[in-house]
Specification:
about 375 residues, globular
């Protein structure tokens, strides 16, 4: 079965029920898989994939997104090419997009859309939303947005199947209808620079963007396209890098220059779980949240069902974001100037199982 046939088969499993139906199946798989794996013995192995990405730290791949078949696409921040990691073989190739990319600050986060089959990336400086077809490796752009300052940093998909971009320097949330390629702006207007990044979807239809310079989390209700802010995280700059929503009903927030925290949405209160230095957070099928080491001393681990910290994993160098692949491994690109490559955390659960691939492709797990 080739990649196009594989993709079409996956889509037919859910297209009759729409995107909300697909999300309901995906969230049930997350809960059921973690419950199935509870109490099982598992091991974790840290290794590295060597690759000389660039001589410039700004050009390293940052925003990875999983496509069908176990391929991770690293959308360029400051390069004119896309890096493709085949997690079946751990090999890296490149896709030239010099006709549409610039040499600086192109796109600031990406998602895979299960029903359209495209990858979408929100613009930082480049002006157009990237639309990438992983079946043919062809790219186009949608729209012509502002190229003044970094507009959006992080995106996710709502319960309605539309893509939402978190405003960094933009004043409103970006909305793309992928069925018509129509762009709009929703919610309240927010002033200031460097506000939010790194969004994650919760099963109730809310997307949460973590604070960068803002003191609050931005909540986007995709059932009615309204926005609000929650929490209070102080005035420290470059606060957080990403988040996940867990079956315990809590948000896990990855802290860069502030402590990583667990946010209880039922009480709108947060508690610190690790010190600062995280480059992202990834939910594993063993029910463990992995806080990717950016400047911390190790990879933080938390049991998401009990919300308790576990023994950290040692690793060298510094990394950002993180994507869980069908082979049960987490991949995160390096940000060190002298140690270029990709971190690989292999999770082996004895008698256990990984999330289904359709679930791995969902915005619960596959986003920035």
């Amino acid at each position: 079965m080739n990649r196009c046939q594989f993709f079409n088969q996956m889509v037919m499993q859910h297209c009759e029920s729409g995107y909300d139906g697909y999300l309901a199946v995906a969230w049930k798989d997350i809960r059921d898989t973690i419950a199935y794996n509870q109490g099982k013995t598992y091991t974790e192995t840290v290794s590295y994939i060597s690759h000389n990405f660039s001589t410039s730290q700004a050009n390293y791949p940052s925003y990875g997104v999983l496509a069908p078949g176990g391929i991770i696409y690293y959308i360029p921040w400051a390069e004119r090419r896309i890096y493709k990691l085949d997690t079946n073989t751990d090999t890296i190739t490149t896709l030239d997009i010099s006709s549409i990319a610039t040499a600086s600050r192109n796109w600031g986060g990406s998602v895979y859309h299960y029903l359209t089959g495209y990858i979408y990336a929100v613009p930082a400086y480049v002006g157009g939303i990237l639309k990438l077809d992983p079946r043919t490796d062809t790219c186009t752009t949608i729209g012509s947005l502002s190229t003044s300052a970094i507009q959006y940093l992080g995106c996710s998909i709502g319960i309605n199947g539309c893509i939402y971009g978190g405003p960094m320097n933009a004043t409103q949330v970006l909305k793309l209808d992928p069925y018509t390629d129509t762009i709009s702006y929703i919610g309240s207007t927010y002033s200031g620079e460097g506000k939010w990044e790194g969004g994650t979807l919760a099963p109730d239809g809310n997307i949460y963007f973590v604070p960068r310079l803002s003191s609050t989390v931005l909540k986007v209700d995709t059932t009615n396209d309204t926005t609000s802010t929650i929490g209070s995280f102080g005035s420290t700059q470059y606060k957080m890098t990403g988040a996940i929503y867990t079956p315990s009903g809590k948000l896990y927030l990855a802290g860069a220059n502030v402590s990583s925290a667990i946010y209880d949405l039922s009480t709108n209160t947060s508690s610190n779980i690790f010190s600062s230095g995280s480059g992202g957070v990834v939910l594993g099928p063993n029910g463990v949240a992995y806080f990717i080491k950016r400047s911390a001393s190790s990879i933080g681990r938390v049991d998401v069902m009990t919300n308790t910290a576990l023994t950290s994993l040692s690793c060298s160098n510094n990394y950002v974001t993180g994507i869980l692949a069908p082979n049960g491994c987490i991949y995160a690109p390096c940000t060190d100037a002298t140690n270029k490559g990709i971190l690989k955390i292999s999770i082996n659960i004895e008698g256990g199982r990984n999330f289904k691939e359709s679930t791995l492709l969902s915005p619960f797990l596959n986003k920035y």
